[in-house]
Design goal:
The protein has 18 helices and 12 strands. With 458 residues, it is α+β, with helices and mostly antiparallel strands. The longest helix has 29 residues.
């Protein structure tokens, strides 16, 4: 993807760049973003899913499809490729950012910074690629609308939540244009501050207690995932989601995982490699993750020091971004590098162990990161369950900060404006696309019933 798609934030003063964004409204009126209707040439959603499945582990696809059939929102989570094609048929501003690519409410969450401080940020970058800023906003707003309807909250609440996301994005992108570049780049969302702002007293106090407990537990390692057996450290087996690769009759996957972890070292800066080399790889296991990622190769590596200190890293296959057919291919031939670079651009405090596997002549690219701490991640999920409008605001603010790191916040702010025109348009789009998602989900369920695709948990 040509770098010139990411407009330089240094070519003109902020005022002139904001005016350029305002002028863009005459070419692409903000009201155009409200429209969604499938084109006559729109592909069958099931065909898109089946095609994507050809590049995944076939035995895991029934698990992926079973998770997608659980609800319209479950389907939405696994349908990033479908929505990418749909977004390409909508009006495009030409204001490019490093996009998440699969920007929905469950791809935001809580994790520990390298210093151990809990922070809230975008936390999934499998589909990241430079793309128009509004693609992320539309998918995020639509995710809240689909989720609200899946909870039985109705169209009015769904539309309000979608509007709340965009309003928060609009206000924060304006704030960021008033900051100097360094201050804007360093801005982060502290989870303790986030929880302290929850208006519901009981929910706020409960989540602050849970945050303290989860943070303290995180310092103790991974007692629920690892064990010591006859003097050797092992990853606990939890079928069908986690199963060992070591000691299997067919050791092909174990060799692949161990070779990948070894080649990954070469992508780390030298000081991080020195740190990693204080650990030795003791065990590897396969892990089934998420909804959209099910079917891709994913392994956990357990690293241990001579003094029994442990570290868990996750190795995850990176395939071509779903945005690539519409936004253009990545500059990086190695898809793992694409993911890692995109994460470093969008996140304020990316993982110190983030890296990618060097190409060994095959076509399977992977990236490596710290294994997410599920105890911290659940805090973000509870915010979403107990205070949806607050969570919508939080995600909107977070996305604005992530976009401002690569895109031109002044141009984006100038285009969006200070009123409700843009958020009203995106809220209308979100509601219309939620209806499309429900329709696609019903087509998907019919395909399962007809035996066109297989969906089961084992």
């Amino acid at each position: 993807m040509p770098l010139e798609h990411l407009q330089s934030a240094t070519a003109l003063p902020v005022t002139e760049r904001r005016q350029a964004g305002q002028a863009l409204r005459k070419i692409i009126p903000r009201s155009l973003h409200a429209h969604w209707a499938p084109s006559a040439a729109r592909r069958d959603p099931v065909d898109i899913l089946v095609e994507a499945g050809r590049h995944r582990i076939a035995s895991l696809l029934p698990i992926r499809y079973d998770r997608m059939r659980a609800s319209p929102f479950g389907f939405f989570r696994g349908a990033a490729a479908i929505m990418a094609a749909d977004l390409a048929d909508t009006p495009i501003t030409g204001l490019w950012v490093q996009a998440c690519g699969d920007c929905h409410l469950e791809n935001f969450g809580t994790f520990a910074s390298p210093e151990g401080t809990p922070v809230f940020d975008v936390n999934d970058f499998d589909e990241t690629l430079p793309a128009p800023f509004e693609w992320d906003i539309k998918r995020l707003a639509a995710s809240f609308a689909v989720d609200a309807q899946s909870r039985g909250l109705g169209d009015k609440v769904a539309r309000q939540l979608a509007g709340t996301v965009v309003q928060a994005y609009r206000r924060h992108i304006q704030e960021l244009t008033r900051l100097d570049p360094l201050t804007s780049w360093r801005s982060r969302i502290d989870v303790a501050d986030v929880l302290g702002g929850i208006p519901e007293v009981k929910l706020r106090e409960r989540e602050l207690r849970r945050l303290h407990t989860a943070t303290e537990a995180g310092h103790a390692g991974y007692p629920n995932l690892i064990e010591r057996n006859k003097g050797d450290w092992r990853i606990k087996e939890k079928p069908p989601l986690i199963f060992p690769l070591s000691g299997q009759r067919d050791d092909t996957h174990e060799i692949v995982a161990r070779t990948a972890f070894e080649s990954y070292r070469l992508s780390l800066p030298e000081e991080r490699r020195i740190l990693l080399d204080r650990y030795e790889l003791a065990d590897v296991a396969f892990k089934v993750v998420g909804v959209g990622s099910v079917g891709t190769f994913c392994a956990i590596g357990l690293f241990v020091t001579r003094d029994d200190q442990t570290l868990l890293l996750q190795l995850k296959e990176a395939q071509t971004s779903v945005l690539a057919p519409f936004a253009g291919p990545s500059l990086y031939r190695n898809e793992g590098q694409r993911v890692a670079v995109g994460q470093r651009i969008m996140q304020t405090v990316p993982d110190i162990f983030l890296g990618w596997t060097e190409d060994g002549g095959g076509d399977q690219h992977c990236y490596v990161r710290h294994l997410k701490d599920s105890r911290l991640a659940l805090i973000g999920a509870d915010i979403a369950e107990g205070a949806l409008p607050y969570h919508a605001t939080l995600c909107g603010v977070t996305l604005a900060r992530a976009h401002a790191r690569s895109g031109d916040a002044a141009r984006i702010s100038g285009y969006i404006g200070t009123g409700a025109a843009f958020e009203s348009a995106i809220a209308a789009f979100a509601l219309a696309y939620a209806a499309q998602t429900h329709a696609d989900w019903r087509v998907f369920l019919a395909a399962i019933k007809a035996g066109q695709i297989d969906a089961h948990t084992h």
